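It would be a great kindness if you could assist me with a short task in structural biology. Thank you for your consideration; the sequence and its tokens are set out here.
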Amino acid sequence: MEMDRLMDDETIRRLNAINRQFYATVADEFDTTRGRAWAGWERLISYLSPLSFFGEGSGVRSKTISVLDVGCGNGRFGVFLREKFGVIYHGMDNSPSLLDHARVSLPDATFEERDIVENPPDSGAYDLVVLFGVLHHIPGAERRLALMRQLAERVNPGGLLIFAAWRFYEYPRFRDRITAWDSDLQVEAGDYLLDWRRGERALRYCHYVDDAEQAQLVAATGLKLVTQYRADGSTGDANLYTVMKNVNSSEQK
């Protein structure tokens, strides 16, 4: 049932619990089927490369990029970065099983078990903050806006905040997976319950971010929009990427 009022804390807790159970159930299968880098990440290289240098003219030197990967899962974005840049990588996720897989792939990285719905990042400063495959799991419009503001606060001057919104509702094959909600669950417009069709059956809560909400999320950061593009999936456009930069006031113009 869709409501105009803000989502209450109990509904947020229940939706978050659905997804925690989902990843507890499918972690090994998810790791097996989510081992490769997203195609859209390759297009980020030109925006990430300037972060890996400092100085001017002949004094330019290579720099290690500090990275916060929020909802890192099995760490595959960290693996992608490590093959191209020197990075200090901090990954956080609420799934201990997926973090176990991540630690195997990135033994020198820092990993933190953290539920960002209940306890979003509140400290540290990074050259790059990313949110991939996560936004659709954040319950409540206000909670998503707050998360964008909180992530923007973690970005160093000159650094980047990059997030991807999964546009699943635009594809019949995902709409076919929509399952009915429990009658007493008060969800918002764009909230869906999708079934998982690999291995053991499981359900996950997913929110569809439309163009209007996308604009609100970008504005909430207070950062400069650098670019947006679609990539990934069998159709090459399943995710909408947004790249934003923490610039000073003169650069904003």
Observations:
- The CA atoms of residues 193 and 205 lie 5 Å apart.
